[in-house]
Amino acid sequence: MAREPEAYNLVDWRTGQVVGVLGADGVVRAADPGIARQVEAAFARELLVRDGQVIEDLGVCFADVETLRPGDPGHRRAVLRHLAALTDVMPRARDGEESVENGERDGR
Q: Quick one: pLDDT band at residue 10, thresholds 50, 70, 90?
């Protein structure tokens, strides 16, 4: 298993511009306080996950859904993997490693 990068650039998925940095300590540094709030809120929320994908709308089906809470094993990784769907930015490893598997924009 690949090690997690020390820090991530936060890239605006619309423009491709680096708009902030997420440190290994979890601190978000961004010129726009709105970006920092979005990323912090994504890490503070519970995630509903089915088959490795974050789901927003459950409808009436709860089969095979796992709730990941902040501090749970896998929560940080799930947020990083789906950050582009949860916020206006996507993470990109600063040290050149590709460790975030899904930096794509899901449905937005």
A: very high
